[in-house]
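Our consortium's second objective concerns turning raw sequence data into structural hypotheses that experimental partners can test. To show how far this objective has progressed, the report includes one record in full. It was chosen at random from the queue rather than selected for favorable results. The single chain below, 238 residues long, was entered without modification.
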Amino acid sequence: ADRTAVVGVSDDQARDAAAEAERDRLVVMPAIRAVVLAVLYLLLRADLAPRVLVGVTVLSALAALGLTAGDRVAIYMPMVPEAIVAMLACARLGAMHSVVFAGFSASALRARVEDAEAKLVITTDGQYRRGKAASLKDAVDEAVSGQPSVEHVLVVRRTGIDVNWTEGRDLWWHETVEAASTEHTPEAFDSEQPLFLLYTSGTTGKPKGIVHTSGGYLTQSAYTHYNVFDLKPETDVY
């Protein structure tokens, strides 16, 4: 009685509010989630086919360049969609990718390419810094000079600036992908198949590469989302 007098809510009103909250939890929120998911599905359906096709052609393009399971690929790119596509394509081929921050110098890239014995380097012609185009390809040219493991440099046209070109080694992304097959039969790999190679910053010495496996990384990602981010399928849409 003292509690209801303080807050100005009767027992009947409190029970009604609790019942309404329970109804929202059991009925309204699941209905809203269902509608959101249905809308997202319809939106994705219209856009899914071309995106899947791009992924398959990139897989085929990398395979046509001779990339096979166990090979290493250095990805030296700004935040562009092709970077994500390249990572996923490498994973599907069983090749290890090593992402190198696009702000690193040519010498930093060279150390990682040399240590990984990268067979392929994927980059862009340049990137935008404070609204102005700055070359990335020049740094790649310097980094791969004299590197016997590098067979090709795949270049995404990002800014349209002029770049130096080494025939037989350098390839445009759009030309290579457009010419690739739209069909690719992926292999199945063990959970311990290496997924990517992550290097330390190298500020205290030579960069050290850490190998993450497919099964181990996915397990850790799932654990982190469930326990650290507290994302639960029953309550969260993500």
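The partners drew two points from this record. The first strand starts at residue 72 and ends at 76. DSSP finds seven helices and nine strands in the chain. Both points have been shared with the crystallography group to help prioritize constructs.
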